[in-house]
Amino acid sequence: MKSFALICLFFFSASFLLSENKGSNPNITQGRTPGESVSLDWTKPIPVPSPLTVSVSVKGGQPAQDPNGFGVQGKGSNRVDPGEALALRFQQDVMIDSIQLDAGKEGKIGGYLKIANKTQNIVRTNRGRESRESREKSVVSLDGLGLLKRGDMLILDPSPPTPKSPSGSWKLIGLTARPFPQ
After folding, report:
1. 136 backbone dihedrals φ, ψ, rounded to 5°
2. 3-state helix vs strand vs coil in the chain, percent to 5
3. In angstroms, rounded to a whole number, what is the distance separating the alpha carbons of residues 157 and 42?
4. Best exposed site among 48, 77, 108, 154 by fewest CB in 10 Å?
5. Nearest to 27 by CA among 75, 83, 96
6. Rounded to the nearest 5 degrees, what angle is found at the Cα of 150, between the Cα atoms of 14 and 159?
7. Which residue ranges of the chain lie beneath pLDDT 70?
């Protein structure tokens, strides 16, 4: 597998909106329990200061954040396209609860994510009726992704992980995580 070359490294101090833990059982890792859920909305400017710091590395172009989400300004669009990727790294251990990707405006869901050494395909799980006018039909939520240790990377890549897998073209619009106490 080709090595992941990080072209640009941008640090975002993100102020996350606290949201309550809605009845889910807390995951206990090595005798520690993660804290309250924090959500990052990548469709809005990132406020400072933050209770949780994340750094974002971009492969294949310059970072592009707008009201449609976070992507890469590279291959003719502001979406993350094959040959481009995002890598997120936190300054403390976090439990990644969910990530939301939007493939609206002629993008598509596909590719893979890698959290530490675990890889998962990015696929649409509920196709429903397709409607180009409905944002909900273009968004996929990946839930229960697991523990990301301090300094490890969460890689979001629209390239197909295997020859038979679909490629993607999407923007990062949301991420929910629960930080572990330091």
Report:
1. -60, -30
2. 0, 45, 50
3. 17
4. 48
5. 96
6. 80
7. 1-31, 47-51, 124-136
DSSP code for 15: P
Instruction: Please name the residue ranges forming H helices in 39-164.
Output: 135-138
The hierarchical CATH code for the domain 34-126+144-179 is 2.60.120
Residues 97/178, Cβ–Cβ less than 8 Å = yes
| Contact between residue 81 and residue 171 where contact means Cβ atoms under 8 Å apart | no
pLDDT of residue 75: 79
CA 172 – CA 81 distance, rounded (Å): 12
> Which residue, 106, 88, 96, is CA-closest to 172?
88
Element (H, E) at 72: strand 69-73
Q: Are 180 and 35 in contact (CB under 8 A)?
A: yes
| pTM for this predicted structure | 0.76
How many helices (H) and strands (E) the chain has is answered by 1, 13
Predicted pLDDT at 43: 94
SS3 of residue 50 by DSSP = coil
Tokens 């251990």 identify what position? Answer: 93
Q: Letter for the amino acid at 142?
A: L
**Two tokens at 116?**
């530490």
3-class secondary structure, 101: strand
